[in-house]
Amino acid sequence: MTARAGGVFVAVDIGASSGRVILGRVGSDGPSLQIVHRFPNGAVEVDGTLRWDVRELFTQVLAGLRLASDSLEPGERIASVGVDTWAVDYGLLDNDGVLTSLPFSHRDIRSGSTVDGVHSLMPFERLYEITGLQFLPFNTVYQLAAETSLDHHRALLVPDLLCFWLTGRRASEATNASTTGLVDARTGDWAPEILTRLGLPADLFPPLIQPGQRLGLLLPEVARSTGLPTGTSIVAVGSHDTASAVVAVPATVEKFAYISSGTWSLVGVELDYPVLTPASRSANFTNERGIDGAIRYLRNVGGLWLLQECLRSWTADGLAPQLESLLTEAAARPADGPRIDADSSTFIPPGNMPDRIRDAIKATGAAAPTEPAGVVRCILDSLADAYARTVRQAVELSGAEVDVVHIVGGGSQNTLLCQLTADATGLPVVAGPVEATALGNIMVQARAAGLLGDSASLTDIRAAVARTADTTRYTPHGPGTAPKTSPIARNRRV
C-alpha cells in the first residue's frame, strides 16, 4: 500500500442519544479528528408514540456542515461527506419523495405485537436461514408489519434518508440494510422470498450500494446553506454506526473480538462467512454485513442505556449524582454482588430504570441495593458478564480464535467496565478509540479518495488508525482470570 497526499473529510455520526459532525484529516501519520458540532438526539413523543425528529436532525447536519466549512485551514477543501446512524428505523416517502410522517423509534412498542403475525407467514427458522439476523422485536421486518399501508410508498433507512436530502439520490447502503431482516446473508442483496411471503413491495427499498461508492453531489440548495462547493461528494460509508466502528478497531492481530459499547453494546467477531446454523439461531447471533463483504458476527447486548436512564431518573428525583463519583463508589464494592439479565426486554423502553433493575434483582432472590452506586455496580457487572458470555459463544459457534478484546465507543472511557470485562473474559482488553465510528467513517472516505493506496485493505486501515489511536490496555486479574492459554483463544474451527 502506498499512501498519497492527505485530505479532509466530514463524518456525520448520529447515535440514538447524540450526534456529531466531525472534520477528519488523513495524512501520512494517520487520521486526526476535530469535532465541530455536537447536538442532542432522542426519541420524541408524538400522539403517544416514540418517533425520531429527523427534520431537526437534518437541520443540525446542515449546521454542522457549515461549521465544518468555516473550520477549514487556508488551502484546505472538503473532499467528501459520509453519514452513519443507528440501524433498523426508516422513513416512508410518498411518490413525490416527501416524508409522510416522522419515523418510529425502535423503542416504540408497536412492533412487538406484529412478531407472531410475521412468523405465521414466514417462520423464524426460515427467516434465519436466509438472513442470519438475530431476533429483535424491533427489527425492520417487524416494524413494517405494523404499517397500515405501504401502497405508493418507498422506504429509506435513517442514514439513507439524510443522504437523500443531501443529494437527491435514493439508495440503500449495504451494512445498514443488512440489519433489516430483508437481506440474504449469502448474496448480500434483498431477499425476494421474504418480500413476497410478507407481501412487501419488491421496490419498497432502493437498490443496495456498497461502502466507498459515491452517492452523488450536494444539491444546490444544500451547498448554499452550508457554504460547501456544489462539487462536494457524498460517499457511502458503513452507514450502520457499528459497521463504521468495527472498521476503526485498532487491531494489530487478526484474532480479536470487538465490543462497540454505547447506548447498545454490539459484541462479536469478524468473519469471511455467515454462520447460519441452528445453534447460531438458538444463541440469537446475527450476521450483518461489514466493509469489503466481511460478516459482523455478533449479538446485541444491553448497553449503557441502563446507566443513562438511571442517571436521568435520579436527576429527575433531585439526586443529581455525579457519574465519576458513582463509578468510584461502585469500584469499591465487592465483586460478588447481584447480577441481572442486561439483555431483558424489560429494560428497552425509557422509564424508571432504577426500580426496574431493583425488581429484576429481587426476582433472582438477591437483595437489591438501596444506593445508586450499588445499582451502577450491578449494571456494570452484568454487562461485563454478558460481554464475556457473548464472546465465548461467538468463538464456539464460529470457530474463530480470540486473543484480545477491543472495546470502542463511549464505553471505552468507562474504566471500571473495561477492567470488569478483562476480568470476566480472562483476556486483555484494549479500550479506545472513543470516536471509532467517526474514524471508520472517515477512513472509508479516505480510501475511496485513493489516499490509502489502490489496494488498501481493512488491515491497512486499522494499522493507520492504530498509529494515532488513544488506547488503554487492561490486564485481567482476580479470581476470574483465565489460565495462561485462554479457553477462548484455544477454540479452533474444525
Automatic annotation (TrEMBL):
Pfam families: FGGY_C, FGGY_N. The lineage of its organism: Bacteria, Bacillati, Actinomycetota, Actinomycetes, Micrococcales. This is Rhamnulokinase family protein. It comes from Arthrobacter flavus. GO terms for molecular function: transferase activity. Keywords: ATP-binding, Disulfide bond, Kinase, Nucleotide-binding, Rhamnose metabolism, Transferase. It is an enzyme of class 2 (transferase). Coiled coil: none annotated. Transmembrane segments: none annotated. InterPro entries: ATPase_NBD, FGGY_C, FGGY_N, Rhamnulokinase. The keyword Transferase applies. Residues 469-494 are annotated as: Disordered. Residues 257-449 form the Carbohydrate kinase FGGY C-terminal domain. The keyword Plastid does not apply. Residues 9-247 form the Carbohydrate kinase FGGY N-terminal domain. Its EC number is 2.7.1.-. Belongs to the FGGY kinase family.
